[in-house]
Amino acid sequence: MTEITTNPFDTEDDAFHEECGVFGVWNAPDAAALTALGLHALQHRGQEASGIVSHGEKGFRSHKGLGLVGDIFGDARVIASLPGRAAVGHNRYATAGETALRNVQPLYADFAFGGLAVAHNGNLTNALALRRQLVRRGCLFQSSTDSEVFVHLIAISLYATVQDRLIDALKQVDGAYSLVALHDGAMMGVRDPNGVRPLVLGRLGADQNNAWVLASETCALDIVGAEFVRDVEPGEIVVIDDTGVRSVKPFANTANRFCIFEYIYFARPDSVVEGTPVYESRKRIGAELARESGVEADVIVPVPDSGVPAAMGYAQEAGIPFELGIIRNHYVGRTFIEPTDNIRHLGVKLKHSANRAAIEGKRIILVDDSIVRGTTSKKIVEMMRQAGAAEVHMRISSPPTTHSCFYGIDTPERDKLLASNHSVEEMARIIGADSLAFISLDGLYRALGRKGRDAKDPGYCDACFTGDYAIPLTDLVGHKEREPALLALNGV
Length: 492
Fold this sequence. Notes:
Layout: E1 20-26, H1 31-41, E2 49-56, E3 59-66, H2 69-73, H3 76-80, E4 86-92, E5 107-111, E6 114-124, H4 127-136, H5 148-156, H6 162-170, E7 175-183, E8 186-191, E9 200-203, E10 212-215, H7 218-223, E11 227-231, E12 237-241, E13 244-248, E14 258-259, H8 261-266, E15 272-273, E16 276-277, H9 278-293, E17 299-302, H10 308-318, E18 326-328, E19 352-354, H11 356-359, E20 363-368, H12 375-386, E21 391-396, H13 418-421, H14 424-431, E22 435-438, H15 441-447, E23 460-461, H16 463-466, H17 484-489
Parallel strand pairs: 14-23, 17-20, 20-21, 21-22
Antiparallel strand pairs: 1-4, 1-10, 2-3, 2-4, 5-6, 6-7, 7-8, 8-12, 9-10, 9-11, 12-13, 15-16, 18-19
Helix pairs in contact: 5-6, 9-10, 9-15
């Protein structure tokens, strides 16, 4: 997989990056406009590129671009160029393949049965192995994204129907994925057998007959006025056509492993995932964190924006005032300024600034969702001290991240993860905090309504905390320097 080169001035390099967002509309007027709105609601899941493929009487139309949804689809003329009552869209953050227009989804191809557009969220763990096999068979790849593997597997399938070709392709891939696919007869939504990545089904207003929506999160249903119907189940294919919705389940039952980080960070706070409101989940996580790692303090300060709900829960449980001690600047672009050595250390202040009046002379507890490399945490702690904080304690609403994700989340190599190489006490010294604590793994599960983590059946994918990778990591074979424990897991 191609590593994304980041600007060293960009503090986003010290963060987990979202997977991707998918959205689809079937049988609704202005389907492309609705899809653009849905992608706007899913902007947090990918900010590098966006694309829409529509279908109408004149066939398929496509428009893609690098950048944010509003920049690509903000012009009414672009939407007008995408006619039809069906459309699929995709927001991209690259976890496999470089950032280039050829990798922007949805991917579209013409087959003997007609056109097909595919939007994919997640990561295939045997994509490289499949790609080598397909190239040997004569397949010509037009992109470097693993998502194109689906297209070629569908193309070479000997089955007659589009649905059966898709099933044939799905049974050959390993990994975590949700898909929205569109051909001239139906729209289909798919989740991997373990249900790692999310996908929901919604229905538009009663005045629109058989108008349906598929989306990564419920917040995208809300923006287009669609009613939430249900989550697409793990291993399920939802087929939507002019007769309505039907369900196909071609896979054997497999243990559910929904990504637990959706509750901690990835999903938007106003979404409901797997039946649980994200906002309430994060507050419960914060409350559990307070019970586990309380310390005397004067104010609770969230690291915006993802730390806010957990900090609220922490403050309520601890009985300590909640204050916005850090103000986030939402209008900073990724290429705001070309750094020089003497200003590089000021980079974090482009996005965060201290609210001195709220923290000067006070013992503060900073609440954040995670620590990745630790560089941003160190700068924020330093910022608090410069603003006059008497003590700075840091609390993290996830367990220590000790392993890389191979299921669609862009994370650093394991040796770059601070928690993989240092104890909590060492991490506290590195970031300069008076104390540091993470929520325990069992505490996280308790906050999500479990008694604790059941090692035999966790119910979630928590591999970034535990190294418990439930899906084979075929493409790691031959890369022994990266993750020896994972290779042992795969029998290498």
